[in-house]
Amino acid sequence: QVQLVESGGGLVQAGGSLRLSCAASERTLSSYAMGWFRQAPGKEREFVAAITLSVGRTNYADSVKGRFTISRDNAKKTVYLQMSNLIPEDTAVYYCARKTGNSYRLSPWASDYDLWGPGTQVTVSS
User: Fold this and answer.
1) Residue 21 and residue 4: Cα distance in Å, rounded?
2) Which tens digit of pLDDT belongs to each residue from 74-123?
3) What is the pLDDT of residue 111?
4) Residue-wise DSSP of 47-99
5) pLDDT of residue 28
6) Which end of the chain is more exposed for a tag (fewer CB within 10 A), N or C?
7) Integer angstrom CA distances of residue 99 from 19, 65, 89, 107
8) What is the CA radius of gyration of the chain?
9) Which one-letter DSSP state was computed for residue 108?
10) Residue 28's closest CA among 10, 1, 5, 46?
């Protein structure tokens, strides 16, 4: 059974940076588009970023555009989220997810993703 595991979260001051990683247990991850979502306390889970299979087209939520970068290394079965210029509003549990369907299409909808990691906590202090 394929599993996703996020890492790299932690506590950082506003203006700082973190790089999250999402490692897959099987090579089949390289056949899928992938996404990052986040959920803050008391809020709905929201889309952060997504990346297609091979060409690496990307899409970002407006709130992180210009500050976050999603990338992937299929040989390492890993997807990354580089986060820079962090603000307290970025505090949340961050999840990576595997998208179903066409791997060359991007989607901001959680319902289009069928496999989720357990999440990693990111806390940004002011």
Assistant:
1) 10
2) 889 999 999 999 999 999 999 999 999 988 899 999 999 999 999 999 99
3) 96
4) EEEEE-SSS--EEE-TTTTTTEEEEEEGGGTEEEEEE-S--GGG-EEEEEEEE
5) 66
6) N
7) 21, 21, 26, 8
8) 13
9) -
10) 1
Distances (CA, A) of 19 to 4, 105, 124: 16, 24, 13
pLDDT of residue 95: 98
C-beta of residue 3 within 8 angstroms of C-beta of residue 25: yes
Residue with tokens 């369907």: 101
- Is residue 97 a contact partner of residue 35, using CB atoms and an 8 Å limit? yes
Q: Residue 101: how many CA atoms within 13 Å on its side-chain side?
A: 7
pLDDT per residue as tens digits for the range 8-25? 999 999 999 999 999 998
